[in-house]
UniProtKB/TrEMBL annotation:
The chain crosses the membrane at residues 53-71, 91-111, 118-140. The keyword Transmembrane applies. Keywords: Membrane, Transmembrane, Transmembrane helix. It holds the Pfam family DUF6533. This is DUF6533 domain-containing protein. Residues 19-64 form the DUF6533 domain.
Length: 170
C-alpha cells in the first residue's frame, strides 16, 4: 500500500505531538514522585480554603488533560459527533485550566505588589478581555468535523485531529 505525502506528513505530525506529550507526562510523573511527600504534607496539614482548591486544580488538571489527550490520540474513533463532543470537552477543560492558572497568578501578583488596586484593575481588565476573546474564538471557530479517520503508516486506523480549529465547513 502506498501513502500520499499528506498521509506521511500527518502521521509524522501526530507522532511528534504524541512524543512531546509523552515527554511532558514523563517529567510530570518524575516531579510528582519527587515532591509527593512534601506536597501531601502541605495539603494535609494546611487549612482548606479557596486558594488551596485553586492550587489543587491548577496543579493536577494539566495532568488529566494531557492523559486524556494521549488516550484520544491513540484510540480509533470513527464517530465524528463523539469526536466533536470530546474536542469541545477538552477545549472547555483547557479553558478552565487557563482561567484557574491566570487567577492564581493574579492573586499572587496582587499580594506581592502590596495590594495595589491600580495593578489589580489592570490585571483584571486584561484577564477578562483575554477570557472573553479566548472563549469566543475557541468555540465559535471550531470546525464541525475536526477529526478524520485515516490509516497511518503502520496500517492501524487512528484519528487525526486538525491542529488548527479556525476552519469552518459550513
Amino acid at each position: 500500500m502506498e501513502y500520499s505525502t499528506a498521509d506521511i506528513a500527518a502521521a509524522r505530525s501526530l507522532q511528534l505531538t504524541k512524543y512531546i506529550h509523552m515527554s511532558m507526562v514523563t517529567f510530570w510523573i518524575y516531579d510528582y514522585a519527587c515532591l509527593l511527600h512534601e506536597e501531601w504534607t502541605f495539603l494535609l496539614r494546611s487549612h482548606w480554603n479557596k486558594m488551596k482548591g485553586l492550587y489543587i486544580v491548577t496543579r493536577y488538571l494539566p495532568f488529566i488533560i494531557l492523559a486524556t489527550d494521549i488516550y484520544r490520540g491513540f484510540t480509533p474513533n470513527e464517530n465524528a459527533d463523539k469526536c466533536l463532543v470530546l474536542d469541545n470537552a477538552e477545549l472547555g477543560l483547557n479553558l478552565v485550566l487557563v482561567i484557574f492558572s491566570e487567577w492564581f497568578f493574579i492573586l499572587r501578583t496582587y499580594v506581592l505588589w502590596n495590594n495595589n488596586r491600580i495593578l489589580l484593575a489592570a490585571m483584571l481588565y486584561a484577564f477578562f478581555t483575554f477570557i472573553g476573546a479566548s472563549t469566543g474564538l475557541t468555540f465559535a471557530t471550531t470546525a464541525p468535523a475536526t477529526c478524520t479517520h485515516s490509516h497511518l503508516l503502520s496500517g492501524v486506523p487512528r484519528p487525526l485531529k486538525h491542529s488548527v480549529h479556525f476552519h469552518r465547513s459550513d
